[in-house]
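Lab notebook: predicted structure, single chain.

Context: the supervisor wants predicted structures on file for every construct in the current expression panel, including those that have not yet been purified. This is the next one on the list. No modifications to the sequence; it matches the entry in the shared construct table.
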Amino acid sequence: MILHSFFRLAVVAGLVSCSTLAAAAATTAASSPANAATTIPGGRYGNVTVTRPSGPLRGFVVLFSQSSGWSAADQQSADALAKAGALTVGVDTARYAANLAANVGAEPAQKNETCHQLVGDAEALSHQLERQSQSSHYFAPIVAGTGQGATLALQVLEQAPSNTIAGAVMVDAERTLDARFKPCPPDPTIIRDKIPGFVEKASTGNADRARLVALVTPHLQTVATHDEDVSDLPLIELPAAHPNGLMAIVISGDGGWRDLDKTIAQALQKDGVSVIGWDSLRYFWSEKPPAQTSRDLARVMQTYGARWHAEHIALIGYSFGADVMPFAYNRLPEALRAKVSLISLLGFAPEADFQIRVGGWLGMPASDKALKVRPELARVPPGIVQCIYGQEEEGSLCPALTKTGIEVIRTSGDHHFGGDYNALERRILSAFKKQSGVRD
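Prediction complete. Output recorded below exactly as produced.
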C-alpha cells in the first residue's frame, strides 16, 4: 500500500499517535452540540479543549495557553473565536512541555528523538477535527497564544513547511522558549519560505486576550465560488522569468502543497517552465467527481495557457494527484488533450479516491468509493506517459506498466524517492522537452 504524504509526515516521522487520532475521531463524533467546549485526547498535547462554531466554519485555530496552563480567560478567548467562526483547539502549554519531556503520548519511534517536530501535532489535529466537522473546505491551522504560548506559536510557524500553517498570532510573547520543547530545525531538503505564513504581534503588558481575538479574526476566511474564473481553485502561480512555451500543472499529494510537489515545481520554474501548483488537500477536501475535476482542469489549462502563451502542457501528479490524473485527462475536450505533451505520474497507485480521507493519511487501503485507475490509464496514449516509483515503495502500479509503451522509471527510496527531488525534476523536464520538440 502506498503511504501518502500526511501519514509519512505525521506517523512515520513520529509526530502523532495513530491510536490518538482514532480516539479523537470517536470522541469528536459523539461530542456535544456546537458552541459547547469538549475535552478530547490530543496526542502529545494531552487532553485539549475543543470549542466549535455554531455557524459556518471559517477557520481552525490552535490556541496555546500561558506557561501557567489553560485558564478561564483562555476559554473565553476560545468562545469568542468560535463565535467568529473558528474551530478552536485549546492547548495547555505547560502540560504539552511536560509531555514532550516525559515522552507522554509518543510512539515508540519517538522515545529517543533528539528534537521535536512541533508542527505535526498542530496539523494532525487540524486534519482530524476538520474532517470530523464535515467541513466542505480545509483551513490550514492558525497558531496563537499569549506569553509562553505566543513564543511557542511562532516556533511552530517557523518550523512549518510552506502551506502547512496559515500564520501565527502572538500577544506578549516571552523572550525564550521552554527548553523542553526542543524544536527540530526546518528540513533543509525542502524549499520553503523564510516565514511560511502571516505573523501578527501585540504587546499589551497584561496578556490581553481580547487583543488576541481581534488579531486572529481578520484571518478567518469567507469561502466564495465564482464559476467565471479560477479564483475558486486552490492554485499557486509560478510563472517562469524567461518562458520557453512550456507550462506544467502539478497536482499535489494529499498532504497539500508543501515539499516534493513544491520543490519540483520551483525547479521547473527556474528551468523556464511556467507552473501552476494545485493543492489537493484543499481542492479534494470535499468530493470532486472525475467530470468536475476535468472541467476545473480545463479551466486552468485555458486560463493560464492563454495568459502565459503556453504551446505545450505537462500534467504532473504526485501520489493522490497522480491517481486522479488519468480520469481528469480523459474527460478533457479533444482540443485541450492535444496540448498535453507529457503526463508524469509519481507514486501512482492502483485506485483513486476523489476526496481526502482519514484512511489515506493513515496508510489504509483506498475507500469503497475508489475507482480503478488501470482502465482509465489504458485510454491515455502511452507514449506521453511516464510513471516514477521508488524501489522500496509498496503498492505502486508503475512496475506493472513496463511493457505497455509507458516510460517506467525506478528510483531509490520509497514513496518520497530518497528525497532527491531535483533528480526527479530533471527526468520530468527531459521527457517534457523531448515530447514537445523543445531543444536546450
